[in-house]
Amino acid sequence: MKLSAQWLREFVEIPVDDARLADDLTHAGIAVETATGSWDGPILDTVFDMDITTNRPDAMNHYGAAREASALYDLPLKPTVPKLPTAKPGTGFPIEIQEPDLCPRFTARVVRNVVIRPSPAPITKRLALLDHRGISNVVDASNYVLWEIGKPTHAFDLDLLEGGKIVIRKACAGETLKTLDGIERKLTNEDLIVADGRKPIALAGVMGGFDTMITDKTKNILIESAWFDPATVRAMSRRHGLHTDASHRFERGADFESTILSCNRVAELVLASGVGEPNGELEGDIIDIIARPLPRTSVILHLAEVRRHLGKELTYDEVCRILQRLGFTLTPATADENAELPVTIPSWRLDVTREIDLIEEIARQHGYNKFPNTLPPFSGSVTELPNAPKDARLRTSLLALGYNEAISMTFIAPEHAKTFSAADVLMVANPLSDEASAMRTSLIPGMLDMLAWNLNRGSDNVRLFESGNIFEKTATSRDEQKRICMGATGNAIPTSVHEKSRPYSFFDVKGDIEALLSAFLNSVAFDTGAAPYFHPGRSARAIIGGKQVAQFGQIHPDIAAVRKFRQDVFVAEIYLDKLYEEKLREPRYSTPSKFPAVARDFSFVFPETTAFEDIRIVVRGLPIPLLAAFDPVETFRGGNTAAGKYSLLLRAIFQSPDRTLREEELALWSTQIMQSLVNLGGALRT
Amino acid sequence: MYTVPQLTDFSGQALNAEKERLTDAVESEAAAVKDEAAQKLFRDRWMARKNGILTQVNDLWLKASPKEAKRDVGALVNDIKILVESTVDATALGLKPQSVTVSDRLDITLPGIRRPIGAEHPVLRTMNDVISVFRAMGYSVAEGPEVETDFYNFEALNFPPNHPARDTQDTLTIADQESKPLRERLLLRTHTSPVQIRTMEQQKPPVRIICPGKVHRRDTPDASHSPVFHQVEGLAVDTNITFSDLKGTLDHAMKALFGSAVKTRFFPSFFPFTEPSADVAISCIICGGKGCRTCKQTGWVELMGCGMVDPSVFDFVKDNGYDSTKISGFAFGMGVERLAMMKYGIDDIQLLFQGDVRFLQQESN
Lengths: 686, 365
What we know:
The complex is a heterodimer. By secondary structure, chain A is of the alpha+beta class. Chain A folds into five domains: 2-72, 2-Layer Sandwich (Phenylalanyl-tRNA Synthetase, Chain B, domain 1), CATH 3.30.56.10; 95-290, Phenylalanyl-trna Synthetase, Chain B, domain 3 (Phenylalanyl-tRNA Synthetase, Chain B, domain 3); 298-370, 2-Layer Sandwich (Phenylalanyl-tRNA Synthetase, Chain B, domain 1); 388-579, BirA Bifunctional Protein, domain 2; 598-684, Ferrodoxin-fold anticodon-binding domain (Alpha-Beta Plaits), CATH 3.30.70.380. In chain A, 27% of the residues lie in helices and 26% in strands. Chain A has 19 helices and 30 strands. Chain A has a seven-stranded mixed beta sheet with strand order 18-21-22-26-25-24-23, with helices on both faces. In chain A, strands 4-7-10-11-12 form a five-stranded mixed beta sheet. The termini of chain A are far apart. By secondary structure, chain B is α+β, with helices and mostly antiparallel strands. Chain B folds into two domains: 12-103; 122-364, 2-Layer Sandwich (BirA Bifunctional Protein, domain 2). In chain B, 38% of the residues lie in helices and 18% in strands. In chain B, the strands form two sheets. Chain B has a seven-stranded mixed beta sheet with strand order 1-4-5-9-8-7-6, sandwiched between helices. A two-stranded antiparallel sheet of chain B has the order 2-3. The longest helix of chain B has 34 residues, at 70-103. Chain B is elongated and about 120 Å long. The chains are: A alpha+beta, B alpha+beta. Chains A and B meet through helix 6, helix 9, helix 11, helix 12 and strand 18 of A and helix 5, strand 1, strand 4, strand 5 and helix 8 of B.
């Protein structure tokens, strides 16, 4: 929205230059975004590009902004009183308000024998500054008044009104109205319209009708200025997708008391558009129908409350001065801070209804930056979110393991939402695109997108993680769960002059998962049975206490093919809702044994069907309390080892905390282990 | 070559002369030691238990000395022992490093073997910075859902249904909600402010919370817009919280975040859930207020919105001890992306959501 500095200065003798004025207004909350000189030969004017907050429709015009300046500089605001000649007697025009709640007031006046012509130069120049082209003297007069005092008005071609009356009513289903923009609009019975005796002639407060508009042929006009219910105008504006300067003001609340002023001001401008003599003649008195009065409200202000909210003592005189300059009426009271100070709210300030609203007026006009900076004392305590230590532990470990923290979009394509989850999908009603119309049910699609982004840009070695929520639709509402997703592809360690690299493998992601889960108290087990979007032979689930806390592995080749991945891609999902049921491990320390550990190796051949976990469980189940460790050292396939079998080198480490181990017990334990391995189908390698 | 003489004269003068002769001998022999083999011979000649020079000195001088001279000879022999041992040690030190440096020399200019460390996301790093500042001022972290109801996102924050203030937040809504009453309909929260109400429902005053989180708006992605972004919201409620406290708190926080030279300015603004409301600008952290591209030559950058909690917001939690005639509070909120972009010189918000390792890894370089 634009304002002209010169126009503004017509209403108050501003003692500062335009740049300073812009700055002062901004500090009072009437924000001037930019001030630009407009040249027409010599400098013509300064145009302020305004950013007026939605609660201040009263300041979205020159007179309203001038009122703010009058309060800022404590100078009088000049009244606007249109000078009109005596009207010819007339019979008036019948106006019938059928919806007093939605249209409490409708004011009109008739001007006859008007010549439609371009507006005088000063009018068109001013409108041009605000980016409005001149249309005709009558239409421009209505626009000019909107920008001058902020009240929307409309002019009808009186001779095109049928039935000899105006009715403000709800539209009937099936009725249509061609609006000024030439669009034929279907009306509903929720639309409030201005109609004549036969047809709709305006969408109330939004836009006038095409068929009754001012044209070159128009001779007699009816100028209208009404007050329409803000919510009704807003609903219509949205329903018809029609946002106009008029609807912008009506839906924020127009000035109930300015209907007569605005009507007369339009008439004055129309009459003044003649060459040498008045253009047209007034007929009859102003017609002013008030179907329901809008009471002026009054609010009690306490100086003590001003101080309680603002933290600074403001004088009674300053409070009164600010409010009065802004148009509030004060009943004089004592300066006692507990005194009740009744304040009557001006009709243009529908946003002010409570004491706190008055306190804001005082604060902003006093100047926010004049308040001291203080720090409040605090008697409460600081608490931590229950999962904060777990979150921090995982995040720190992920960063240390080399995963870069990433954030992807919350919405994904519906087909991906179904591929990576069995949950019901929460859909976005008004998505930016179809590919972003489902709330993510999994972090994996976003992760795969990010991995692809990197691979397509020559970054072949990528490790990323994202911590974020997934969404599921439930019977009546939604469920939100926090998860971590890891993604990795490329080399496990960077290629360097010192060592050869190798590709990232299943066991890299497994190792990272083991490292992350080792922060928790209970031990983790792994099994197959990860979701079908993983490679069935290269994926696993991590289980703690019977709960699946993570699954991970290589992405399924079919999915990799669709996404055109040319190298193996690994992902992991950690289910934090399940994992966080587990406690973090608190370290318990014991003295390392002073006695030597003894290692024994066992080289066996096993059928492929025997997994290491099977062996581990059996050996760990043996009654050997001093077995300190049992690990695989080497696997080997091919060569002398028959097909379907593999050779496995295992190492057991025995250690006692309080003595040196004896040869005979070591021999016994070795025998027990070997026997158990044979029982599992293993054969000692010779 | 030095040999240990038998002594007959145990006078002080004679003993000192003998000590001098021995000292000259051990020092000149030590100087001649050039390699490991020579050092070994040298060590054995002087220190070998069987017939080494020190042993001979002990036998020929100390043991052979008359009783009355034993004390002086003992001290002399002890001095000699220390001298010889340290001289022999010195020859060993002089030799060993020399031989190792010859065989084990590395080209230390080759790059080290680096285990890559993951980089923190600039937005989350910034968010954590903000949280730390407020934690130090007594604020606890609070969280809320990202899919919210109309009630928490709008109504309880004093955005009535059909109010133009809702237009300022282009909302992404969830499908199939028409059968529900408006206040129960689901949407993607447009700000972290709903956490204010959720917290006040659970906790009686006083309250000091900081609410970090993800928010969504229906903004077409470009260099400065993203439909997904992050906010940090703060709320303080107590008896006697004033607008001056709000100003002081945010001024302090901005100085803690950006340095003590940073200044703050407050401009009147409008938010339905605060009154009075303000926009906060800080002196540009890039140019220090002189004017640059970041601050569009104004020297100031608008960074957040804030205000005193509107009494009508307290009305929604009145039953939990929030009587607006007795308590007051302030709230503030800031966009984390904007902060991070300014702090780290990022000119395209899209970079933050691509997961591009070339971008992310710059943090650790």
